[in-house]
Amino acid sequence: MKKYNPAEIETKWQKIWEEKGAFKAKDFDKKPKFYQLEMFPYPSGRIHMGHVRNYSIGDAIARYKFAQGYNVLHPMGFDAFGMPAENAAINNKTHPAKWTYSNIDYMIKELKRLGFSYDWDRLVITCDENYYKWEQKIFIEMLKKGMVYRAKSTVNYCPTCKTVLANEQVEDGKCWRCGDEVIQKEMDEWFLKITDYADQLLDDMELIKDGWPEKVLIQQKNWIGKSKGAFVKFKIKGRDEYLEVFTTRPDTLFGVTFVSIAPNHPKLMDLVSDEQVSVVEAFVEEFKKVDRDFSKEKEGVFTGAYLINPATGEEVPLYAANFVLMDYGTGVVMAVPAHDQRDFEFATKYGLKKKIVITTDGLTNNPDELDKAYTEVGVLVNSGQFDGMDNEKAKWEIVKWLEDKGLARVGYQYRLRDWNVSRQRYWGAPIPVVYCPNCGIVPEKEENLPVRLPENVEITGEGGSPLAKVDEFVNTKCPVCGADAKRETDTFDTFVESSWYFLRYCSPKYDKAIFDKQRADYWMDVDQYVGGIEHAVMHLLYARYFTKVLRDLGYANSTEPFKRLLTQGMVIKDGAKMSKSKGNVVDPDDIINQYGADTARLFILFAAPPEKDLEWSDEGVEGAYRFLNRVWRLVYEYKDLKVIDIDINTDRLKELNYMIHSTIKKITQDFENYHFNTAIAASMEFVNFLYDFKPKTEDENALFAKAIEVLLIMLNPIVPHIAEELWQLTGHETLIAFEPWPEYDESATVKDTVTIAITVNGKLRDTLSLPRGIAEDEVFNKAKESEKIRRHIDGKTIIKKIFVKDKLLNIVVK
C-alpha cells in the first residue's frame, strides 16, 4: 500500500485546480448564485492561525455550496494600505509599496498551499491605483451630493516631531518615536456624513436580524446610540443669548443646580469672566493633553458665568468640565447632582448645591443627607405644578410646557459621529481635492483620476504629512480655472477601502465605472460573510453605510451588503490569544510542512465550533493527522470496489445502508448550520463503522463502494486534497470538488429494528433487539425466552405489564 504523502498530493491537486481554472466564478450563470466571502487580510507578511481558521471556515462553506450545485463566487484580496507599511519603510529603509507587494506575493503562496477555492482572477489589492481610482471617484460623487464636508477636528499631535499621531502611536500620553508629550491640536479634516444614515442603519437591522449574530447588531445599535430627549435653552445671565443642552432626563430640570461646558467648546472663552480667564485657560491647556483619564477623576473650573434655569428661573453656575464631550449633544450638559452619580460626585467635590426633585417612600427630602444620587423612578417633588406626577410621565409634560414658551423642543441625539476620513499619512489613497485661490475647494476632474501617490517620497515619521513635502505632488493646476493650486495632502482612512471591496469583486477588472452594475446586481448581496467580531462597529458598520451610499448614488441596488454573518472565535494557546509578544505563536507553514494542509484544516474545524474560541493542541493536530491516515488506508484497501445497483435484502446490507443515509443526514444538517466540528465527528464515527464492517459478499462490496464515495464527497469541503486523490484512486476521472452532494432517503435513516428495554418491577433485566412496531404480546413472548427475564418472573404472579412501543416493557410481578 502506498503511504499517505500530504506534500506530494497537495502540490499535485493545487496545480490541477489552477490549470483547470476550477473555481472561476461565472457571471450570469443559470445555476443559483452563492457569494461566499471572508474578510480580506492586511498583508503583514505571514498568514497566522487566525487567518487559517477564518479562511478554512469560508472554504468549507464555499466547497459545500459547489457540491450543492451553486455558482459560487469566492474571491480573495488584500487590504493593503496602512501605517505598518510606513513603519516598515522607516525601519527597513524601503518603500512601502515594495514591502507591501513582497508580503502579498508571499501570502498568496501561503494561501494557495492551504488549498482554498479562491477565484484568483478576481484578486483585489486596495493599494493598486486601479482600485483607489474608483474610491476617489466615489468621494467626488459624495462631495457633489453634499455627503462630505470639511471641518475642524482635534488630533493627536507631537510638537517635537511636528506630526499627527494615530491613537496607537501615543503611549501614556507620549510620542512613540521621541517620547515627548503629545498634545491635541485642531486641524481641517474631511468628514463623511454617516450620521445622515443613522436611522437607516438602525432600521435596516430588521433586514439582517435572522442572519447576523445578535451581539453584533446590539453593538452597532449601541454605537449609533440613538436617544430621544429634549433640547432645552438656558439663558446666559446678562446677555440676550442662550446655551442649548440636550437631555434625556427633562423630568429632572427643576433639580439643575449647575451646567457644564466642554473645555473645547467654541464659545467657552467668550463666556469666561475676566477674573477667571487665567484659571480657565490653564484648565483648557491641561485638557489638551492626551494622557488624561476621565474615568478616574471628574474635574472642572468655574467660568464666572451664570445661566438661568428655564424651569425655575434660578441662576446656576457654568463650569468647564473635562467629562463633557464637544462632539456629543451640544457640548453643554445640565447637571442634576441629586439624581446623577457623576454630577453628585462633581458637586460634592466643588461644594455645589444639590436639590431633590424625584422621591420615593423612605427617601430623605434633605439633599445633605444623600450619600449617593437617587437614580430610580419615583414621583416629582420641588417641581412646581408637576409635583406628585410620575417622573416618566412628567418628562414630556415638562418639555411641552417649556416648548410652549419657546425654550425646549423634542429631539434625537446620536452617539454616532460623522466619519473623519483624513489621515496625515503617505501610504493611503490621496483625497482627490484641489485648493484654488480663485475657486476654493475643487474636486479633481474625473479624467485626471487616479490622483497617484508619488513614488519619490521620504518617509521619516516626522514633520507632518509626507505628501506635503513633495512639491511636484502638491503643486498643480485648478481643474476649473487652470490657476496655480495646491493638492490636498491627506490620504483616506484605510477603513474606506474595506467599505466597498466586496462590490469590486463582482467585476474587478471593469474600467468604465466603480464596478459593473449588472454584475453587482447578479452577485450581491454577499450570501455569507466570515470574520472577527472585533470589526462589529467599525468595518461592518462602514460597509453597511457605503452600500447604502452607493445605492443612493445609483451604482447598486443592494441596501445591505451581507445577508449572513459568521464571527469566528480566536485561536488561543496556553490560555491566551496567539501573539509574538506572548511567544505562543504557531506558524501555519510549520504545520503544513510536517502534517500537510488538510491536517491543519481538519484540526482547525474540528477543535471547536466556528463561533467559539479554539484552544490550540499539538495532540489534536496529531490526532487529525492519524484520522487522515486511517481514511487513506481504508480507501486504499477497497479502492477497486465498484458501485452497482443492488437490493437491500439482508440485515448486514440494511445496517450498512442505514449508516450511509443517517450519516448523510447528520453531516448535511451540520453543514447547513456550520457545525463543522460535529460533522467531522460524524465522519469519524462513519470511518470506524466501515473499518469494522468488512464487506463479505458482492452486494456488500457494491454498497461499501457507495459508502466510500459518500465519505469522500462529504470530507471534501474540509480536506479537499486527500479527497481528490482518493477519488481519483477509486477510478473516478472527474473532480470531486464538483460532485453533487449526496442525498439521503429519510426512510433509510430509520432502523428496521429497535432496542427494547425489559424491566421487572422497574429494574432493567435485559434488552432485546426486535422489529420496529412489534406488538406488546410479541415482545412479552420474546422476553419470556430470555433466561435473564425468566429467573425474575418464574413462579411469580404477573400483576400487570406496562408497554411503551419500541422502547420499554415493564413486567410487574408479586
UniProtKB/TrEMBL annotation:
GO CC terms of this entry:
cytosol
Motif range for 'HIGH' region?
41-51
InterPro entries, alphabetically?
Answer: aa-tRNA-synth_I_CS, aa-tRNA-synth_Ia, Leu-tRNA-ligase, Leu_tRNA-synth_edit, M/V/L/I-tRNA-synth_anticd-bd, Rossmann-like_a/b/a_fold, tRNAsynth_Ia_anticodon-bd, Val/Leu/Ile-tRNA-synth_edit
**A molecular function (GO) term:** leucine-tRNA ligase activity
Leucyl-tRNA synthetase editing domain span: 221-403
Key word RNA-binding present: no
The positions annotated for binding ATP are K580
Aminoacyl-tRNA synthetase class Ia domain: which residues?
Answer: 12-209, 416-617
Localization, UniProt: Cytoplasm
Which superkingdom does the taxonomy of this entry point to?
A: Bacteria
Query: Motif 'KMSKS' region, which positions?
Result: 577-581
Q: Name one GO biological process term.
A: leucyl-tRNA aminoacylation
One Pfam family cited in the UniProt record for this chain? Anticodon_1
Which EC number(s) are documented for this chain? 6.1.1.4
Domain Methionyl/Valyl/Leucyl/Isoleucyl-tRNA synthetase anticodon-binding: from-to ranges? 657-774
The protein's annotated catalytic reaction(s) are: tRNA(Leu) + L-leucine + ATP = L-leucyl-tRNA(Leu) + AMP + diphosphate
**Where is this protein chiefly located?**
cytoplasm
State the UniProt keywords alphabetically.
Answer: Aminoacyl-tRNA synthetase, ATP-binding, Cytoplasm, Ligase, Nucleotide-binding, Protein biosynthesis
Name the protein family.
Answer: Belongs to the class-I aminoacyl-tRNA synthetase family.
**Name this protein carries in UniProt:** Leucine--tRNA ligase
The species this protein belongs to is Hippea maritima (strain ATCC 700847 / DSM 10411 / MH2)
Query: What does UniProt list as this organism's lineage?
Result: Bacteria, Pseudomonadati, Campylobacterota, Desulfurellia, Desulfurellales
